[in-house]
Amino acid sequence: MAINVSEITSVLKREIQSFEQKLQVSEVGTVIEVGDGIARIYGLKNAMAGELLEFQTSAGPSMGQVFNLEEDTIGAVIYGNAQGIKEGDQVKSTGRLLEVPVGEAVLGRVVNPLGQPIDGGPALSLTETRKLDTIAPGIAERQPVHEPLQTGIKAIDSMIPIGRGQRELIIGDRKTGKTAIALDTIIAQKGTGVKCFYVAVGQKESSVAAVVETLKKYGAMDYTTVIVAAASDPAPLQYIAPYAGTAMAEYFMWKGQHTLCVYDDLTKQAAAYRQLSLLLRRPPGREAYPGDVFYLHSRLLERAVKLSKDNGAGSLTALPVIETQEGEVSAYIPTNVISITDGQIYLEPDLFFAGVRPAINVGISVSRVGGNAQTKAMKSVAGTLKLDLAAYRELEAFAQLGTDLDTATQKQLDRGARLVELLKQPQFQPVPFEQQVMSIWAATNGFADDVPLARIREWELSLLTFIDQRYADLRTKLRDGKVLNDEVKSALKAACEAFKSTAWTK
Known about the structure:
six-stranded antiparallel beta barrel; single chain
């Protein structure tokens, strides 16, 4: 076979031109002190804040992250098991920031904050990752919140509405139903296309297992991811868990989809961050929290956003949960998070024990987005409801004095008591928006005034069933149009009057 010299020469020249000498240089340091999930490392003088580190141990590589940059050493937190790391072990800088796998495959799974499945299922086959800690979208990339996120809870959807892209705090003492409201909201997203992310921080594993079972029972696990940093997990994992959930949600948000993130709860995340900061000898401030604990939550909650149309109009709605001690909302962490969020739902123990569930104190609770996050139909009935309840609360204290009341005052008190009863709702039974509008309109327009207080729940169910059977087109019109115009009002009035003349009320 003849050798073509010119062809060989051209191939060699092309290869020489494209030759690139790639040297992989990585700095290596040494562990000089380790304990309580914290390591001090000497020799990594070019390490960056937040950089991912790889610990070379006898049991295999373990990951950590740069936390403190000091004159001679760096302080790092260790993710996962720190037992295998000892003094003298080598540590390699990676030049990367902490990332978590994202994509459709995370839906329906229970994972840890590093994105590793802990539900006994197969490994996640994901190629795409997102950085845990990213900068929140700027003002120009956002638009005001204007779409409602239905929770299915009458008291919230009518008086403390939540919009897509809003940050609404759920605050209250332990065992007052904070998690129940978050789960109800997740269950209510069925069929709406909203992807849900439930982040459990510092909770008992048995409690998280109960949450997962509840979500499975109501078919909500199909569109939900549960991120778990349990009470038994190291503090670094509890610290990064909310950021991991947000990064997973942002993947869908930037694709123009709607997402909901529940952080249950941020009090325990702040405690984990305080633990890490004190171990790393950072100066303590109020309640021994470090000075940047406000930034810990503000940089997380600012990532909740309704994106502009140019960016796909996706949204990330945040429902952070804060646990108070004896109703102390003026403590450090509660006041911090109240100032960051767009309103709060305050759950009161006294109401809870009095049987008002959900135990929402409508006087203290507020949504700073307000009517912008409501449909026109709900907005028109909510105004009357708020006024009636406010008048009831004012007169209730006066009535306790035992004085004789005039007919008008007694009538107002009776209606207020019936509205309070109407807003009570069993757990895991979200009410569709159009049914909420119909029952609230009927009650505020006097159709429940002569119903015995103990039978209000029964009256509401019977009324809705009656309308579904006899006036099905009314419900469809309200659901599709989302407006309570004169035509719908007159049809609703006719339906309520027809129901009043049935055997139920006799």
